[in-house]
Amino acid sequence: MLSDSLGCVYEHFDDDADLGPKVRAALRLIEREISEYGIAACSLSFNGGKDCTVLLHLVMAAVQHLGSCPRDFTVIYFTQPNNFPEVLAFIQSCEAAYGIRIVTLPPFKHGLQSLVAMNLSVIFMGQRRTDPGCANLRDCTPTDPGWIDPPLMRVNPLLDWSYHDIWKFLRTLHIPFCELYRVGYTSLGSVHDTVPNEALRRSPSSAATAVTSTATSPATSDVVAEPSEQLAGKEEVMSEFAPAWELRCGSLERCGRSSSSS
After folding, report:
1. b/e for 208-240, b at 16 or more Cβ within 10 A?
2. What's the rounded Cα separation, in Å, for the pair 188 and 155?
């Protein structure tokens, strides 16, 4: 269980002038929506990607802070054809890690209708403004007309987070994430449209020194790796690609994708 990590979310970033306000704003928004609609009416879309992993941790921290039970909050995996086995394994592992039950539904647009039948009114999503089609989203946005009746409220606590904010949060709190990010993947879709990011390809000389360089990244140099993370860093020497958090330019996040996703 990640109870210790959940408990420190509220104060851990108090001294971080950049990420701290974003963490606090996200938690306020999450708490407000849960309090307004009730935990039984709220859900979260979880596909195993880095952004929704941050979102899951924030939501579970808020649920714990409000004194509610994690299993009363509905977490949903909308099926994606040809998903990576590593992603599916990570999604399954989160059930035990957070003490939740993940409901599997058909792909997103078709699966949304099931949420109405489940008496859900709100769906938290891990979208950021830099995602395709998300530049003009608001914190709370109803589903598009014609998608679902009655409309669902889409809540987007991470809209103003950057790529490096995501990795700083995950690595500072030692939150587990999908193993594909350790070997050069920076944005995950299906096995047919996703490859490691060429911007992270290692030169032969850099691979030789990767043991000392993978424990921290330029954007997260204050993060001290756990022993298991340090071991994983040594294993990464065998990869042609550096881990996702070493990507220097966030705008290159989707360079390993032939279509858009997280």
Report:
1. eebeebbbbbebbeebeeeeeeeebbeebeebe
2. 21
Give the whole-number percent of the chain exceeding pLDDT 90. Answer: 70
Q: What are 35's two structure tokens? A: 């309090």
Q: What share of the chain is helix, strand, coil (3-state, %, to 5)?
A: 45, 10, 45
Q: Are 76 and 111 in contact (CB under 8 A)?
A: yes
Q: For residues 122 and 152, is the Cβ–Cβ distance under 8 A?
A: yes
Average pLDDT value over all residues in the chain? 86
Single pTM value for the model? 0.86
Cα separations (Å) of 179 from 85, 129, 157, 165, 237? 10, 25, 24, 19, 14
Pairing of strands 153-155, 140-142: antiparallel
Name the residue with tokens 């949060």.
169
